[in-house]
Amino acid sequence: MANIPKGFKSLPLPIAQLSLAAVLKCGQSFRWSSIPLAAGVKQEEEPENAYPSHEYRLALRDRVVCLRQDKDTLFYRAAFPDVPLSEDQSAKRDKETLEWLRDYFQLDVDLVKLYSDWAERDVVFKETALRFSGIRILRQDPFENTISFICSSNNHINRIGKMVQSLCTEYGPLACSLPPPEDSEETSRDAIAYYGFPTPDKLTDESVSTRLRELGFGYRAEYVQRTAQMLCDEHEDPESYLVGLRKLPVEEARAELLKLCGVGPKVADCILLMSLDKRNVVPVDTHVHQIALKYYGLRGTPQGKGGKVPMTPKIYEAVCTKLVETWGDYAGWAHSVLFTADLRSFANYGLASPDSTPSKPETPATSVPPTPTESDADYFGETPTKKRRSRTASAPRLKRVKTE
Fold first, then answer.
1. 3-state DSSP of the chain
2. Which end of the chain, C or N, has fewer beta carbons within 10 A?
3. Which residue positions does the secretion signal occupy (predicted)?
4. The pTM is what?
């Protein structure tokens, strides 16, 4: 039976169904923070991942969700501002948090069954899955997902995270302030202020573009502000409008997204896959194209300047078609496994040591991979027509609050 951390509730869930260490660090969502925990006292007969190694935190607009995981259990709790709650109110909030988790991680989808299907279809996937189990597509808030991937153009995972966090600190609602976990490796006990993602109306003023440039967004600053303004000008409830795109056919939903500033085909497809339920959409850039060339028989593509493959609509469509034919209805989900496995920051993921030969690990990995670097930037290579130089984004603006 799982050792439930103090204050947490438990949900039976094997790592093969969800690996937080992979899913929250592979470039789908950019706001989850991870806090290393002090090592538990492991008994000889216990596997390496018998105890959670990290706590993951995400600020929603009214709470901070905290997660931990061992080999067969997901532990969760939500933190709120210090307001006294009745027993019924507390139970209601616990239920809301669990419902959010089930929706966000799409836990109604049997990932083990999907992996089995993909492995039967594709020997490349079969080999990759030995180390990279538990990678599923998140079902994110469409507005946050849209703005985050506008920030992703010609960018890399770590820097996108810094930019999005700065946006939330500057314009988002304060969910609450929390100190590090008592059993963490953090030496400071100062509370950290957690900010939710801002609503569209908070980003419409022209001053937003100026401020985001000061925060290192470069040309993306104008795209963020103009997209928020377009959504608010054209729709009474912009967030409901974006959620409503889930009901449209893929091509119609894509056409709506392409109207937004800073949204090209690759960014639109990321949004379709990661927040609009279009599970067979495969976002393609030069990085994914190289995977298709290397493993899936696409041939004859001319090399562009510097050895890079020029992305054309014809090439984009050819790669999508090939990968959907290979993986089927959940092709976008399968693509995320191959993409994650190809990231340099995940090179040693699931191995006993950095020098280990890639093979099936005895137990699934739970440790967080190194922070992604600029070497992974090509995944976010959809560059706007007009490029402007931008300064490096400042560090994440997580505010610490002194505690007595």
1. CCCCCCCCEEEECCCCCCCHHHHCCCCCCCCCEEEEECCCCCCCCCCCCCCCCEEEEEECCCCEEEEEECCCEEEEEEECCCCCCCHHHHHHHHHHHHHHHHHHCCCCCCHHHHHHHHHHHCHHHHHHCCCCCCCCCCCCCHHHHHHHHHCCCCECHHHHHHHHHHHHHHHCCEEEEECCCCCECCCCCCEEEEECCCCHHHHCCHHHHHHHHHCCCCCHHHHHHHHHHHHHHHCCCHHHHHHHHHHCCHHHHHHHHCCCCCCCHHHHHHHHHHHCCCCCCCCCCHHHHHHHHHHCCCCCCCCCHHHCCCCCHHHHHHHHHHHHHHHHHHHHHHHHHHHHHHCHHHCCCCCCCCCCCCCCCCCCCCCCCCCCCHHHHHHECCCCCCCCCCCCCCCCCCEEECCC
2. C
3. none
4. 0.87
